[in-house]
Amino acid sequence: MPVVAIANPKGGVGKSTVATNLAGYFARQGHAVMLGDTDKQQSSRAWLALRPQAAPSITTWDINADHIARPPRGTTHVVLDTPAGLHGWRFNDVLKLADHVIVPVQPSMFDILATQDFLRKLADEKKIRHGEVKLGIVGMRVDARTRAADQLQRFIEQLQLPVLTYLRDTQNYVQLAAHGLTLWDIAPSRVAKDLLQWEPVTRWLGGAAGSTAGDKHPDGATS
Questions:
Q1: Residues of the domain holding 90
Q2: Distance CA 84, CA 91 (A)
């Protein structure tokens, strides 16, 4: 079961935007997708409540009487939206579950400084160094032609981590989120530029985008 974690200890960088749209991508491919929200703010769960019944189904945790959260039966793909301040045992639990970790970063010096220790820690993790878990960076709300994007690129290169893509600052994400939708739920012509920016991410996911088998099961998490 492919598990993709969206992580950054800083809040407000676009984790839920990446998580919801990635879940939408998997759902559009016909997979049984669970969007697991480990953030106390439950932004992704609130987004799911807005999702139209006609849209490709995306589920969330099944919570039992003991407050144990598990993927619904039949889940083939999992996207985890993680909280701000992710560290310690919660960070370790997420890393145990994930096949891929995506870190959204905004190209401001304040965001870079707030994220650099987390990225260094990730880069030093044995599972990432050995390629057991793939790590990629997504630049958020940025024009790739700007000085800010160059600044982010230079910073990430120092850590020898891949920048997968840059997602532009557009109201498309805001407007779609307000209706529980993603880029893959509307006519492609309406969001052509944005879908093009996502192509490097979906290519990077590779087998995770089409695989339905695996031995990782994100169960036993507390809600």
A1: 3-204
A2: 11
